[in-house]
Amino acid sequence: MSSLVQTCKTRRVALAAPADKEAIAQVRGLLAGMFPPGTVLERRREQRFPFPRLLQLTPVSADGLRRLGPSVTAAGKQLSESGLSFFHPEPLPFRWVVAALDKGDGRWIGFLLDVDWCRFTRQGWYESGGKFIRAVTLSASPELAHAAC
Length: 149
Prior knowledge:
By secondary structure, the chain is an alpha+beta fold. It has helices at residues 3-10, 21-34, and strands at residues 49-50, 54-59, 72-79, 83-88, 96-102, 108-120, 126-136. It contains 2 helices and 7 strands. A hairpin with a 5-residue loop joins strand 5 and strand 6 (108-120).
């Protein structure tokens, strides 16, 4: 068990895990690299962490098998083991995306994401979020995420 998860359990923070074990493992690895053991940032039912990194969103069909349009860049807000929230300058005309997240070492990880909420901010941007459905394997770059769906 990773020290991050042990810390969360020690502080009695319940972790709601997505169904896909590979997605959980990848998110835990990403968080462990961003936050030292013992970091507790909030007391919600599920631990959320700031995620101030750019990410790529590639619209796909609900089954994740067909690309439906060009990728867009978004700015990460928060990350948990089961989902992600982010900011974007234009409305998103799609619900299902492959979200490609930069691990910070030049490598990317990908997830099929169900974007299930959106709101307009006072600053003129949009904030959206969704739940991880499963981990996906990305091609050499995040722009080629559709090739791995």
